[in-house]
Amino acid sequence: MARKKFIAGNWKMYKTVAEALSFAEAFKALYVSGPHDVAILAPYTQLAALKDAFAGTGVLVGAQNLHFEAEGAYTGEVSAPMLKELGMDYVIIGHSERRQYFAETDETVNKKIFAALSADILPIVCVGESLPTREAGEASQFVGAQVAAGFAGVGAEDFERITIAYEPIWAIGTGLAATAEQAEDMCAFIRGKVAELFGDAAAEAVRIQYGGSVKPGNATEILTKPDIDGALVGGASLVPADFKAIIDF
Ligand code: 13P
pTM to 2 decimals? Predict the structure, then answer.
């Protein structure tokens, strides 16, 4: 079965509830449910309001992080069952900003993947290399190791429910997107790695997004590559018309 393209907006730490709702109103006026999956990954405070605002539109909603335990003495954290209660469809795991600023490791990423899957929330697992790693010619090796460690012990059949987002750190928020060829090459490499570790059916099923300075102007060339199944969009997803234009690539 052909993989459905998946365009997701990562709002990072932007928008109040009021601002999120005004985005939803403007976006609903533009968006008609089409062939692609579309999701907004928002801060925790906005999730209930967004789920409600997007009810019946086909726009899916998710969080940007979760804790790997179901409950416990973890001040400030939110668990998978708590997100499921809000009807969350997706959760981002292991974004490079969380790896960089919040001590996220391949080990916590791995535990969070299990937590999300067992609560029936679809994980979007981020991988990607820094500029020095790319310049040293070690990007594939680095990303391959993130995939191997992050997905250790995951069942081959679970890849139908998993999205991997390839986000080279040097392309995030810089306006300097990877070329479509660089993005395709790494997404194809990641698919090959999934095949090697989990088998061909898992590799065929898993969706692999590219993220890093995706804009209306470069969405077409990136999103029409065979191994790129979608985009994880930061800045451009904050603006209804820009996000809509990317979805319509
Ligand atoms: P930008 O699209 O702003 O570069 O952000 C990409 C990203 O980090 C999405 O998760």
Answer: 0.98
